Amino acid sequence: MKSLRKVNLELVIWLTALIVLAVSNPSEHHLTFCPLSNLGFRYCPGCGLGRSISYLFRGDFYASFHMHPLGIFALGIIGHRIIQIINKQYIHKPTLN
User: Fold this and answer.
1) 76 in a domain, yes or no?
2) pLDDT grade, residue 36 (50/70/90)?
3) Domain that holds residue 95
4) Helix, coil or strand: residue 52
5) How remote is the C-alpha of 89 from its chain's centroid?
6) Please, which residues have CB within 8 angstroms of residue 82's CB and are 6 or more apart in sequence?
7) pLDDT exceeding 90 applies to what percent of the chain?
8) pLDDT tens string 39-54
9) How confident is the model at residue 89 (pLDDT cuts 50, 70, 90)?
10) How far apart are the C-alpha atoms of 15 and 31, rounded to whole Å?
11) Three-state SS letters, 4-46
């Protein structure tokens, strides 16, 4: 139980999300949690971002950019955050004097 407390929940969520996007098929119909899409709005600034990242994992940069132009930027930000968490929590642990 003590080791479970050391696991960073944010890290688990980001890694799980990226793994799901890496193995999912972006061209299939998907479940959406987007409140704007579920309310029937035709445009949402964030819709397509997950599929864009999924296409990036497949190496299809044209389809990725077509789904959402900021997909590659979002993947970079998420990757940077994952590296920050790993460095802070597991590599450069603060020591108590």
Assistant:
1) yes
2) confident
3) 38-97
4) helix
5) 20
6) 11, 14, 15, 18
7) 53
8) 888 788 888 898 999 9
9) confident
10) 19
11) HHCCCHHHHHHHHHHHHHHHCCCCCCCCCCCHHHHCCCCCCCC
